[in-house]
């Protein structure tokens, strides 16, 4: 997340000799073999910042279009098509494929209380979005 000044690295813990995903603040997020857990923990850390930025953007008077920040494009064209279909279905929801987590993700707008959900496949992501925000 370079826009937030966050980076994740792999570090080796000397005592246990285990490799860990570590945030730029030095927090061990998860062992190297649990990238999904590391993603969930960094999401917990970044969600308040993302929420504040997106909430501020929705309140800007100069904003004509309520578009969301760019999410890096998926390297697989099939993922890009799925993402486009999901975002068409759920207006304002930011969807992406987690290259490291191998899961589908969605950031759901809600004023100052945005929610983030993930799922192993697009159909489960649809259900997660609907559960997180039933009026969608």
Describe this entry's structure for a reader.
The protein is an alpha+beta fold and 136 residues long. Helices cover 35% and strands 22% of the residues. It is built from 3 helices and 6 strands. Strands 1-2-3 form a 3-stranded antiparallel β-sheet, with helices on one face. Strands 4-5-6 form a 3-stranded antiparallel β-sheet, with helices on both faces. Strand 1 (8-12) and strand 2 (19-23) form a beta hairpin. The longest helix is centred in the middle third of the chain and has 24 residues, at 35-58. It is globular and about 50 Å long. It starts with 7 loop residues before the first strand and ends with a helix. The model is unreliable at 61-69 (pLDDT under 50).
Brief summary:
By secondary structure, the chain is an alpha+beta fold.
Question: Which key terms come to mind for this protein?
Answer:
136 residues; three-stranded antiparallel sheet; 3 helices; 35% helix; alpha+beta
